[in-house]
Design a protein that fits this description.
Blueprint (H helix, E strand, L loop, with lengths): L2 H46 L13 H4 L21 H10 L5 H14 L7 H10 L4 H14 L4 H10 L2 H14 L7 H10 L3 H14 L7 H8 L10 H18 L5
Length: 262
Amino acid sequence: MSPRASRIRPSRVARPRGREAKRSRVRLIALAVGAVALAVVGAVRLVNRGGKAPDGPATPGASATASPAATPTRDVTVVSVPASYSDAGVARLAAQLRAPSLRSRVEAAESLAALGPRAREAVPALLNAMARRNSEIEFARAVSKAIKAIGPAAVPQLAAVLRSGNSQARFHAAAALNRLGPDGAGATDALIEVLEGDEDMTVRSNAAVALGAIGPAASAALPALKRAAGNPNERLGGNAAKAELRVRAQMAIDQIKGTIGK
């Protein structure tokens, strides 16, 4: 064997060994990265299950005994109001309707809904709150739900708002009576007063709609509704609000007479 050959042979043997060592290092790095990833995933799962953080051992049954702060919760409002809830409690909930936080206001309205007829004294506060926050859909729905839950017990308060509230409050009071339907019959006289004399055409239109929703029990409103419907041949000169009132009044007449769809 020549000296040249003896120098070449070791280099040929060394090259595959170098490549193999590099592959081994890559495999070790990959295994290390995988182990770290598994550890992170395991820690996240452990925390989500309500156990201890990854720096301590998990406690068996930790998810069942974890404190409320450690247990994941969903944003669901479940309102439970004691049967003995006092008038002072209703007043506090009515005051909470003016809270800066939307969530606080919604929870107050939902609590009043849970009280049902016992929350009748909160009706003016509900209407005023809706008038101030009528662009907040979630809150408006909660208020409507509360008034609907109060039911006929809300009618005297709604009638009082129709006679003395501001324009927005009267608008929402008439809308609430519309949702109550026949249960709102006790407010027929107040609705007639609004229909004939309110300065706001949209409030008058809402009153007509509410009278139609009451149905035959609002037959005393027929003369006022006929006057509001007017002469169909009369020109209104582009007065859209008056045109809407006419349409609503005629629909209410048909509902009270039971002639819609016939």
